[in-house]
Amino acid sequence: MPYVEHLIATHVIPDPAPLTRPLRRADVLRALEGADTLHLTRATTATLLRLRAALASDQAGPHFRVATALGAGAANYARRDPVAAIDSTGPRQSGVGHGTASGDLELELGTGHVIAVTHLQLDTRLKYDPDWFGKKDRAIAGRTAEAYLDAQWKFGDVFFGRMDRNWGPPGIQGLLLSPNPYGLDHFAISVGTAQVRFEALATQLDDGDSSGAVVHRFMVQHRLRLAPGRWALALWEGTVLAGRDRSFEAWYLNALNAGILEQWNNGGNVNSFVGLDVERRGRVGVFGQLMLDDIQVDRAAATDRKPPSYAVTLGARGAIGAAATAWRVYYTRVTNLTYRNEDSLQVPLYHSLGTGRNFDDYDQLTWTLGLLPRAGLLLTPEVTYLRQGEGDPRLPHPVVSAYPTTPTIFQGIVERTLRFAVAGSYAPSARVGLSFDAGVHHI
């Protein structure tokens, strides 16, 4: 919902769930209905009213809904993220440009507090996408984009199925949980209020093969999110465990446990991450996300010389004028060995796609504007400067003897990319929409 995100960024409506995506339709509708339109531009007011009418038409009680869509596209790259599509080879290879066609069928059954959704998608673009792990040798490729059962109550919900999620500042991929992996089925719960909420999810990653033996892989993440006033803060932890004939051990599956303490006390063989998300909303807001993977405190042994593994995002955003223009600037860094582990099967990858960021060994500075010149027309100019080393989470972890010569960031040759682009969405009516992204990359 780019239009909803623009209204949040320009302070037209409050963020119904800070540091969390996706948003519930009921929460968005409540925010839209409470918006003050007295001082808004005509384009902003018209866009807000369109969104309100579209969401208000959704049935709140027991219902069955069928939605279909047809689409056509053309691009000179196949990856979903144009910033990630800068090379003809390597981890950031762009994929083959092509004209594409797509079709969607969404079925939704709602019964009071319970909702069931299946969203089927046929898309020829998948055949050319380097990230797509499914079948590519047919005329058309397909996938189930969403398939879930969600029981929702005022103070919590229980979820099982497939749906894209992002934990962290909106509009930027989360460091450990983002929409990057295709079709990550998971079990999730949340308990609490809008001000204090506990959330957890558990998933099985794709099996690995170690010397001919099948290795089962699992991941659990949990966090405590606080949103007092203008501030939002989330403390979180993630654990990846793998092993031949290994099951999802109860002490890691227990979402109220501190997984890193269980690892220390039980001598468990896992890959642990801890993190912090923060956001302050205001006319000029600030946000950040920090993840610690492996930080060596002692310097007594050879293993203590391992370079630090961490990731960080820092940024600011605000509005210009009468809530018609939004701006955002942020810097993000992911070090060389972030996500990697001595056990190559305990890396947060799902079919070789990162569950958070898809790359490491890079930093990026991005500036964007959000313009709404007329109802339904959203334009986003962008300038990005990206530096990418040769490190990659899919590469083997270095041996201990290589630690002294392994850089914290920027392994090997560093590729620098300057991107000038403009993206846009135009919806002249509720049934027709157009989106585009045009950019120039100087490498």
Structural class: mainly beta
CATH architecture assignment name of the largest domain: Beta Barrel
Could you say how many structural domains there are in total?
2
Q: Which spans have pLDDT < 50 for at least 5 consecutive residues?
A: none
Number of strands: 21
Question: How is the quaternary structure best described?
Answer: single chain
Instruction: Profile the largest sheet.
Output: 17 strands, antiparallel
The CATH topology of the largest domain is given as Porin
Radius of gyration: 22 Å
Q: Percent range for helical residues?
A: under 10%
Strand content: over 45%
Q: Could you name the CATH homologous superfamily of the largest domain?
A: Capsule assembly protein Wzi
Number of helical segments with 4 or more residues: 5
CATH class of the largest domain: Mainly Beta
Shape: globular
Mean pLDDT: 93
Pattern of helices and strands: HEHHEEEEEEEEEEHHEEEEEEEEEE
Cα distance spanning the termini: 31 Å
Structure description:
It is a single chain. By secondary structure, the chain is mainly beta. The chain has two domains: 339 residues, Porin; 102 residues, no CATH class. It is built from five helices and 21 strands. The strands form three sheets. The chain has a 17-stranded antiparallel sheet, with helices on both faces. A two-stranded antiparallel ribbon has the order 1-7. Strands 16-17 form a two-stranded antiparallel sheet. β14 and β15 form a beta hairpin. The radius of gyration is 22 Å and the shape is globular.
